[in-house]
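Hi team,

Filling in the usual template for the complex we talked about on Friday. All components are listed, including any nucleic acid strands or ligand strings, so the model treats them as one assembly.

SUBMITTER: L.P.
PURPOSE: interface mapping
COMPONENTS: two
RESIDUES: 824
SEQUENCES:
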Amino acid sequence: MTGTGSGVDAEATREEGGMPLVDVALSCPACSAPIGESDRFCEACGAELTPAVAPPPQAAPVAVARACHECGGVVAPDGYCTQCGAEAVSERDHFVETPAPWVAAVCDRGIRHSRNEDAMALHAGAEPGSHAVLVVCDGVSSSTDSDVASLAAARAARDLLTVSRPQALGTAATRRNATARAMEVAVDAANDAVIRNTTAGPGNPASCTFVAAVIQESQLVVGWVGDSRAYWLPDAGAGQLLSVDDSFAAEQIAAGVARADAENGPQAHAITRWLGIDAPDHTPRTTSLDLTEPGWVMVCSDGLWNYCSEGEAMSVLLRDTASTTGYAPLDLADGLVDWANAQGGQDNITVALARVGPPTPVSTTPTSTAPGTAEAGTTPEPAQAAYQQEGTPDGNVLS
Amino acid sequence: MATFSAEVFQNEFLPDGGTDVHAIVTVTCSGAGEAGQTDSGEAGEIVIVDTSGSMKGENIVAAQQAAAAALDQVLDGVWFAVIAGSHLPRLAFPVTPEPAMVRMDSQVRAQAKAAVGSFFADGGTAMGTWLRLATKVFASVPTLAQRHAILLTDGINQHESPQELSAAIEQARGLFQCDCRGVGEDWQVAEVRRIATALLGSVDLIARPEDMAADFEQIMRQAMGRGVAEASLRVWAPQGAEVLFVRQVAPTVEDLTPRRQEVNPLTGGYPTGSWGDEARDYHVAVRLPAKSVGQEQLASRVQLAVGDTVVAQGLVKALWSNDDTLTARIDPAVAHYTGQAELAEAIQDGLAAKAAGDTTTATAKLGRAVQLAAQTGNDEATSRLRKIVEIDDADTGTVRLRRAVSKLDEMALDTASTKTTRVRK
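RESULT (copied from the run log):
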């Protein structure tokens, strides 16, 4: 998909030798203050320090589907459909994760590309709204082994964000800062994972984008490097694009070019920042949002947003899709991937969704264009604590 | 235990909007064992010799020797019989009033040879009746899994109508295989080819009676080396696709397309008869609905099935690309066998036109044949063609029909027309 930006000095690689993985145990998960390896409480904020534990096992990507993804026919042992002859998708070419009923993602090769260089990794607590990590990485197709690198990166970041969970001490602001700090550490880990999976020798080294959303109680923190995106799509009102692409197109938009023109220009897909051994700077930009109303957190690759860029349009698309798929996150993500494929599937497609609030919207909203959404709101539930929160509803760029 | 393998030669790349996929699939069998000696069941052989009046003289003596040579090759334990063919065929061995076969052993072989030695030439020629009798004789041994016959004739099928012969061929189809040989120049290649093609056998010319024994010995030895009684080629094509043709292209060209038997709606079965240790090449052409550039799909599964068991499979693929350097290439095996199939057709059409007195068509067709034989490196065909036409320029296919042509040379060209050379891999 994306090609690395031509205007960036590719020689600005990382410093020699020094790329130690920053151990999360060395900074307070609540306030990010430095801590000693054996400290039981943070000197700065007093948070209790629990030793970092291994992340809970995540659902492995599903095995090769026995039903053909094209026609639903039976796939023969030779790997092709017995009806239409379509090649069965490999585990890497199409996989899903549903760590909890309220969080799901679908990662798909799309139609035009011969392999899937997108990747995602999720974590979610069982209780809706409690804690979720959604990571999407989009491998740069002009580089070698970026499919392997992107998956390793997504998983490394997910694992770190899963364990570096700020404790329920301190204010919302300190938790937000701690999560933003954890995001940087997670990107370091993701970058190291990419480098570990970079083949030595000539050729373009592996590289990928990064976007992660962390939901903790009713706080959302998003971090990104490159042009993979995070959206907040409330049930009522227009959706918001939370991230700002590190791309040539975004630079043009910032300079005053209309979004539609910039995103369809000749260099629209050139990214200016990425993860990899040749990345000059991989510090994520982050933003946060207090989730005060029901809706969806979406993290996606450009395989989806190329066809639907604006936050408002994404809201409409989500509602339209839900009118046929229903509101189960996996079905909805699957429906969005199908929609992108129906638009041409020009790129790999990844859609990760977390539901905030009751499982289905309480009522239809005036902005909805979906004809079938009304039926979904038949079981109204009172808005509960999971998303009532202090703070402004607007994105708050931290760095 | 016989083992099969399949290898596919094709260019899987199709241009944008391209629909037709061609592939050569080589199926190889090894460890076939011997006829009737394997788990697949018992084997039966019938030697059918023309004993009509025209065989009088050196032909009948040569036929006696040839039948005896064939009997020498029949393995002990294999069921066999000998039929003396005329307009009223008779079971020459075993000598019984009812159709029957016997198991070969040394004592029976001596008796059979004695019976063959008493052949005498008398009566007319009605090959359909020979086939009907052979069908009944094979049916007398229900345990047979493998049935094969050798048929020798020297003349035209004068004593029954073409319709009667057709009916007899249809009755025998699928029940036994039959290799056919014609001795001398008084038989019709097209007529005998009809029998051989329907009964999955070969057709060839024995120009001189003294060559008959060696030929029969070779046919029977080959038949005894076929330990796999029956196998079927299966061709799967996806829903919405069309199988344009299925052709055996080596060792001989045979169009299998009309022999399709439905295995399931997407899979056709094409009988291939028995197998020894050998390789056969098949040309499969499938027309697909075009997909967009970058998409890939399976165009065909080409399988060999013994009974209901698939023993080998080759996958034919289609991958749409807008890279001309990939899509413009024609696979060398596909090109070679396409040329060889056209060569066989050009020779047969050319000889038919020549026989009908259409010199213009004959010259054009045989000229094209000369050109194709040169292009595909079929030197044997070139030397046979040279006996029929003067070659002015092989590259352009410029030829002149020779004035005096031996009938036997024409028949040799005709019978050999379907024999192909293997592609140089």
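MY TAKE: The mean pLDDT of chain B is 94. The longest strand of chain B covers residues 309-320.

Thanks, L.
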